Amino acid sequence: MSGRANEPVRVLCVSRDGSSAAGVAAMLASLPDFVFATRTAGYAESLGSAKDLAIVLLDEDLGAGVGVIENVRRGSRSTYVVAVSPDDDPETIVRTVRAGADEHLSLPLSQHDLLKVCIKVAEACRDTAPGDGRGGALWVVYGPKGGVGATTLVVNLAIALRAMQRDVALVDLDVYAGDGAFFLKVEPTNTLRDVVINYNRLDAVLIQGAMMRHPSGLSILAAPGVARGEPTLEPTAEQTIGILELVTGMHELTLVNTPGIPSEATRAALTAADRVLLVTDLTVPALRSCARTIDWLIAEGVDPTGTIEVIVNRYNPRATEVAIADVSRMLPAPVRALLPCDDAAALSAANAGRPLAEGTPLQRAIAQLVSPGEVPAEKSRIRRGLGRLFSGRAA
């Protein structure tokens, strides 16, 4: 067994004296079902960056060991770093974690301890391996005008896909007013904020630890709740791409809820998406915002006919002043669906913190956005989106 097919797990063992590092290397070599490429080094040696696992053995000079951990972390954010110390002193654990260690173990090391670490590393390597270049599809739901029902759509679309037994993740990037977790009646222990704070050690293990599981089987990376006195921490464009890249590598399909403003995170997600669902109603301000969004997406190189779909929410043919034919002429992207005005069902679900009741008109219309025969794109365009994002074009 290894992290990538036919490839060993790359390990760096660092200690002040060579014999301790060699002892750990020998213990690793004795583990069943794993293949390792292990290198030992002293504190003062060049550590390099190409490794899956780094084991740093600490001694009485804690500061020097913490410095080694920081150097390893600077060299590679994807390396899983384990600090090993003679005891479980809380101050030691806190300092090593702050320096970038993913885990702390105490001496004497056991084969069982190392085996658990290696299983985590192998799973992370497998989840992030490039393989044949395929990744899960990325769908982004965006309401250019606030209050048009984008969160209701993305949450219930995720539930509809799970009902079809699809492997689905929901990422809520709305750090200002993200209610995805509330709409699903779950209380997240960790959120997007925890991932952003620890972005310097972003890997599959960190992402998996921050995501939670809904009873439907949906995986959720929730937006942070509102905390008084705590500043809003929005991911940068680069952080957004890094997070989505990992999540799409773990799931068949990733749905993204965004803030209702063209922030860095919103722009990064939209330009990287395989499918953009723009949510609007038939009011003139909402349609104008939708048109402006499509214009800047086109300027970023997004193909409106192959990627962008307009979802008209709260559609009531008897009450609207704007005809659908006029909308189609106004917007350079196809109108994919007309979701009925079903305020009773939407309000009831929102107030109760649950998905739409099965069989309501709005729930049925959302479920019809994905047919059983539809297959998500085999390869996410997230890399191409990153290139567009930093291509120098103005939004």
General description of the model:
The protein folds into two domains: 9-128, Response regulator (Rossmann fold, 3-Layer(aba) Sandwich), CATH 3.40.50.2300; 137-389, Rossmann fold, CATH 3.40.50. Helix content is 39%, strand content 17%. It has 15 helices and 13 strands. It is of the alpha/beta class. It has helices at 18-29, 62-75, 90-99, 111-128, 150-163, 180-183, 192-197, 204-210, 237-250, 264-272, 284-299, 324-330, 343-352, 361-367, 382-389; strands spanning 9-14, 36-41, 53-57, 80-85, 103-106, 137-142, 168-172, 212-213, 219-221, 253-257, 275-280, 308-315, 335-340.
Keywords:
395 residues; alpha/beta; Rossmann fold
Write the CATH architecture name of the largest domain. 3-Layer(aba) Sandwich
User: So how many helices?
Assistant: 15
Tally of discrete structural domains: 2
Write the element-wise H/E pattern from the N-terminal end onward: EHEEHEHEHEHEHHHEEHEHEHEHEHHH
Order of strands, main sheet, comes to: 8-9-7-10-6-11-12-13
CATH class of the largest domain: Alpha Beta
Please identify which CATH superfamily of the largest domain we are dealing with. Answer: P-loop containing nucleotide triphosphate hydrolases
Spatial shape: elongated
Q: Low-confidence stretches at least 5 residues in length (pLDDT < 50)?
A: 1-6, 130-134, 375-379, 383-395
Please state the CA-atom Rg, rounded to the nearest Å.
24 Å
State the helical fraction.
Answer: 25-40%
The tally of beta strands, per DSSP, is 13
For the terminal residues, how far apart are their CA atoms? Answer: 46 Å
Range of strand content: 15-25%
> Taking all residues together, what is the mean pLDDT?
81
Q: What does the largest sheet look like?
A: 8 strands, mixed
Query: What is the CATH topology of the largest domain?
Result: Rossmann fold
**Class inferred from helices and paired strands:** alpha/beta
